[in-house]
Amino acid sequence: MKKEKINFINISNEIFTLFEWKPPSSLKSYLLDLNIVRENMTVDIFFHLNRGTMKIVYIRKSNLLYVIGSDQDVQFQLLEAILEDVDEKFNEMYAVDVILSYGNVTEAAFKEFSCDEIIENAENLIKNVDVFCRVCKKTLPLNVKKSLIETASSYPVPIVYNHKGHAVVTYIDQNFVVRGVELVNITG
Question: 63, 94, 154, 160: which has the fewest Cβ within 10 Å?
Answer without folding.
Answer: 154
